[in-house]
């Protein structure tokens, strides 16, 4: 599993020990990790990125975007609230990436309701458990296998209509049908 991890640059003076604690908890899960916190986040940039994005701030933002796109999920330490971290969480959610926002101050999942958004208030006593639970749950639902099938024109038309009506992709709708049938058969 691939994880993108970030935290507020402006909060480093106050929260760096917590950033390190979260980083250690992520690493214990033996995942592929890209993060500004470990300095490898610009490895995803191409030579053309360096030509196109002349300033270091634009290059940094492009690297963040590519890191989010590369990852299966994002973990954001958000104790130091900032606009940029909120934007990065939104980018990940728009890309249908699950996001775990961790704070030492509050659980943001009490304010934000989205199937891809997860939040928790943590301390040194529970950070490893929270991170491990998040990663373990995602690994069970990681869509890493592709399956192709043929449908009739009528079936595809119906699938288009029902998925649009429900506000989900066709793939998400089919997965929901399978999950629903599986949970009914398990009972």
Topology of this structure?
Blueprint: E1 2-7, H1 12-27, E2 32-34, H2 47-52, H3 56-70, E3 73-77, H4 83-94, E4 98-103, E5 117-121, H5 127-140, H6 153-166, H7 170-186
What multimeric state do the chains show? single chain
Q: Compute the separation of the termini in Å.
A: 30 Å
> In total, how many beta strands?
5
Characterize the overall form.
globular
Tell me, rounded to a whole number, the average pLDDT: 92
Strand order of the largest sheet: 2-1-3-4-5
Largest sheet: 5 strands, parallel
Percent in strands: 5-15%
Secondary-structure element order, as H and E?
A: EHEHHEHEEHHH
Q: Please give the radius of gyration in angstroms.
A: 19 Å
Unreliable stretches (pLDDT < 50, length at least 5) are none
Helix percentage: 40-55%
With helices defined by DSSP (H or I, 4 residues minimum), what is the helix count?
7
* Helix-and-strand structural type: alpha/beta
Tags for this model:
five-stranded parallel sheet; alpha/beta; globular; single chain; 7 helices; about 190 residues
Describe the overall structure.
The chain is α/β, with parallel strands linked by helices. It is built from 7 helices and 5 strands. It has helices at 12-27, 47-52, 56-70, 83-94, 127-140, 153-166, 170-186, and strands spanning 2-7, 32-34, 73-77, 98-103, 117-121. Strands 2-1-3-4-5 form a 5-stranded parallel β-sheet, sandwiched between helices. β3, α4 (83-94) and β4 (98-103) form a beta-alpha-beta unit. α1 crosses α5. The two termini are 30 Å apart.
């Amino acid at each position: 599993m691939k994880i993108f991890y970030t935290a507020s640059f402006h909060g480093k003076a106050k929260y760096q020990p917590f950033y390190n604690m979260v980083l250690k908890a992520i690493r214990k899960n033996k995942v592929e990790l890209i993060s500004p916190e470990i300095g490898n986040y610009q490895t995803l940039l191409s030579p053309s990125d360096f030509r196109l994005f002349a300033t270091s701030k634009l290059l940094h933002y492009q690297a963040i975007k590519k890191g989010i796109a590369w990852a299966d999920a994002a973990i954001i330490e958000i104790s130091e609230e900032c606009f940029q971290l909120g934007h990065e969480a939104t980018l990940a959610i728009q890309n249908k990436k699950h996001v775990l926002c961790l704070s030492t101050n509050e659980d943001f999942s009490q304010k934000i309701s989205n199937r891809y958004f997860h939040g928790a208030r943590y301390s040194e006593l529970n950070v490893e458990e929270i991170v491990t639970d998040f990663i373990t749950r995602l690994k069970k639902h990681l869509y890493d296998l592709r399956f192709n099938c043929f449908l009739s024109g009528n079936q595809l038309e119906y699938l288009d209509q029902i998925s649009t009506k429900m506000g989900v992709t066709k793939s998400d709708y089919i997965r929901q049908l399978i999950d629903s049938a599986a949970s009914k058969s398990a009972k």
